[in-house]
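Protocol step 4 of 6: structure prediction from sequence.
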Amino acid sequence: MADRAVQRLRQEVDLMARFTQTYRRKFALLIDRFNGSDPRSDLQCVRLCIEAVDMMLASQSQVAQSLREMTTAEPAPAAKRAA
């Protein structure tokens, strides 16, 4: 992978990580608010939806971390790649 492509991928990974961290904080506040009250059944559904989105954001954060690790890994020697 060319250095420029690696740099662009790293920038995208950093953006994904910042996005997920920002929105996970926002959702955490909402989840705490719903958990602290006595919500009606419709509010419980909203809470579950928010928690589901939070889990998706956590997953995306992990993907971002994996991509970051892949872009900083040493390339395999040519002999090993051919095997």
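Step 5 (inspection) to follow. The first helix runs from residue 3 to 36.
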